[in-house]
C-alpha cells in the first residue's frame, strides 16, 4: 500500500480518536464516570483495532496516537490536557508493542483469542498510559516528580484498568470488518479516498476547536 | 505451550489483578470526615481553618477560576515550623497522592465543598480529590 494512503489513514483515524477524546471523553470526565478507562478500552483501542484490521500495517497506530494526542493538547478546555495528551500519544506506542508479533493476526483469531487479546490490550494500554503520564507530565511541566506517589497510586491504576480491559475485550470481539469491505475502502480511487479522508480529518480538528 | 492457551491465561490473570486491586482500594479507602482534615498528624476542624486562613481566588494555567482557602495558610495554621524546608504529601481517600513543594503550596487552594486542592502552577494531575490528609515530609 502506498505511503500517502497510509498517512491519510493515520491522520483520519487519529483525528477521529482525538475528537472523541475531546468531546465524549470530557463529557464522561465531567459526569464523574471512568472517562480514561472507557475511552481507552472502547474508543482508542477500538479505532486502533479497526485501522489495524483494515490496513494491516504496523506503525500506523503509533502515528494515530500522536495525532490524537496533539488534538487533545490543543483542545482549549476540558480535563488535564497535558496529562491526557501524553497518555494518548503513548497508548499508540503500547498498542504497537503488544501487537508487534505477526502471529497475532486479528483476522485469523477465534472469539476467545479476540476477547483475551482485547482484555490484555485494554488493560495494559490503559495502565501503561497512566504510569507514563504520571512520570512525564511533571517532567514536561517542570513540576515535582516523586516516584513514591506513583507507587501509592498503582492499586488505583490496576483497579480502574479492569474497566479498560473489559471494554477492550468487548470491543475486539465486536469489531467485525469484512475483508472485501476493508479492501474497497483502503483501495478506493484516489479521487475519492484522499478528499474524504482529509475532509473528515479537517472536520474533526475544526469542529473540536469551534465546539470548545 | 500454545499461544491460544497462554493468551487467555494472561487475560484472566490481569482481570484477577484488577479485581484484587479494586477490593484493596475499596477496603483501604479512608472515610472522609466532612468537618475535619488531617494536617501534620493533627485533626483540624474546618470551621477553625476557615476563620484563621485567607480565602483566595485563583486562575490556574490549566484554565478556569476557583475559590478556596490558601494551602500555605493551612500549613502555617497547623503549626509546621520552617514550612519552606518541607515537602507536602497530599492524600486522597482512595490512596491517590501527590507530593509538592512549599512554593506550590503558596500557589494552591483547598476547595472545602469539593475537598479538592487546586494549584495555579501545576497540571491537573496534581489536583488531588477527596483530600483526607496533608502529610509533612
Count of helix runs of chain B: 4
Report mean pLDDT of chain B, rounded to a whole number. 91
Structural class estimated from helices and strands of chain A: mainly alpha
Number of strands of chain B: 9
Distance between the termini of chain A: 36 Å
Report on the structure:
- The complex is a heterodimer of chains A (212) and B (137).
- Chain A is mostly helical.
- Chain A has a single domain (3-211), classed as Arp2/3 complex 21 kDa subunit ARPC3.
- Chain A has helices at 3-30, 35-55, 60-74, 81-98, 111-140, 147-174, 179-186, 190-211.
- Chain A is globular.
- Chain B folds into two domains: 1-31; 36-136, Sulfite Oxidase, Chain A, domain 2 (Alpha-Beta Complex).
- The A-B interface holds A 76-77, 79-83, 103-104, 110, 112-113, 115-117, 119-120, 123-124, 133-134, 137-138, 141, 143-144, 146, 148-149, 152-153, 155-159, 161-162, 165-166, 169 and B 3-4, 7-8, 10-11, 14-15, 17-19, 21-22, 24-25, 28, 62-63, 87, 89, 94-101, 104, 121-126.
Write the layout of secondary structure elements.
The complex is a heterodimer of chains A (about 210) and B (about 140).
Chain A: H1 3-30, H2 35-55, H3 60-74, H4 81-98, H5 111-140, H6 147-174, H7 179-186, H8 190-211
Chain B: H1 3-27, E1 36-39, E2 42-45, H2 46-52, E3 55-58, E4 66-70, H3 71-77, E5 87-92, E6 97-101, H4 102-106, E7 108-111, E8 116-119, E9 131-136
Parallel strand pairs in B: 1-9
Antiparallel strand pairs in B: 1-2, 3-4, 4-7, 5-6, 5-9, 7-8
In short:
The complex is a heterodimer of chains A (212) and B (137). Chain A has 212 residues and is mainly α.
Key phrases:
heterodimer; A: 212 residues; mainly alpha; Arp2/3 complex 21 kDa subunit ARPC3; 0% strand; B: 137 residues; alpha+beta; Sulfite Oxidase, Chain A, domain 2; 4-stranded antiparallel β-sheet; 4 helices; 32% helix; 31% strand; elongated
Amino acid at each position: 500500500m502506498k505511503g500517502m494512503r497510509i498517512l491519510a489513514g493515520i491522520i483520519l483515524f487519529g483525528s477521529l480518536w482525538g475528537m472523541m477524546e475531546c468531546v465524549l471523553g470530557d463529557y464522561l470526565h465531567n459526569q464523574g464516570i471512568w472517562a480514561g478507562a472507557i475511552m481507552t478500552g472502547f474508543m482508542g483501542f477500538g479505532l486502533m483495532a479497526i485501522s489495524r484490521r483494515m490496513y494491516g500495517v504496523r506503525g500506523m497506530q503509533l502515528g494515530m496516537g500522536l495525532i490524537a494526542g496533539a488534538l487533545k493538547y490543543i483542545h482549549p478546555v476540558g480535563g488535564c490536557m497535558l496529562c491526557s495528551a501524553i497518555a494518548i500519544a503513548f497508548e499508540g506506542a503500547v498498542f504497537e508493542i503488544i501487537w508487534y508479533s505477526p502471529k497475532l493476526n486479528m483476522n485469523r483469531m477465534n472469539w476467545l483469542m479476540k476477547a483475551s487479546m482485547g482484555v490484555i490490550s485494554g488493560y495494559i494500554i490503559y495502565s501503561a498510559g497512566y504510569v507514563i503520564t504520571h512520570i512525564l507530565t511533571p517532567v514536561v511541566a517542570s513540576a515535582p516528580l516523586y516516584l513514591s506517589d506513583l507507587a501509592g497510586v498503582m492499586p488505583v491504576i490496576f483497579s480502574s484498568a479492569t474497566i479498560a480491559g473489559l471494554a477492550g475485550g468487548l470491543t475486539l470481539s465486536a469489531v467485525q470488518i469484512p475483508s472485501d469491505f476493508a479492501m474497497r475502502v483502503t483501495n478506493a480511487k484516489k479521487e475519492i479516498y484522499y478528499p474524504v479522508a482529509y475532509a473528515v480529518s479537517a472536520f474533526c480538528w475544526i469542529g473540536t476547536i469551534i465546539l470548545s | 505451550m500454545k499461544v491460544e492457551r497462554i493468551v487467555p491465561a494472561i487475560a484472566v490473570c490481569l482481570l484477577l489483578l484488577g479485581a484484587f486491586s479494586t477490593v484493596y482500594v475499596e477496603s483501604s479507602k479512608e472515610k472522609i470526615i466532612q468537618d475535619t482534615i488531617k494536617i501534620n498528624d493533627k485533626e483540624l476542624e474546618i470551621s477553625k481553618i476557615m476563620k484563621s486562613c485567607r480565602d483566595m481566588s485563583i486562575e490556574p494555567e490549566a484554565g478556569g477560576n476557583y475559590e478556596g482557602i490558601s494551602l500555605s495558610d493551612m500549613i502555617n495554621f497547623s503549626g509546621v515550623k520552617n514550612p519552606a524546608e518541607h515537602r507536602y504529601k497530599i492524600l486522597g481517600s482512595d490512596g491517590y497522592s501527590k507530593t509538592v513543594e512549599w512554593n506550590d503550596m503558596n500557589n494552591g487552594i483547598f476547595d472545602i465543598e469539593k475537598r479538592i486542592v487546586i494549584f495555579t502552577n501545576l497540571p491537573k494531575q496534581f489536583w488531588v480529590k477527596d483530600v483526607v490528609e496533608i502529610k509533612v515530609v
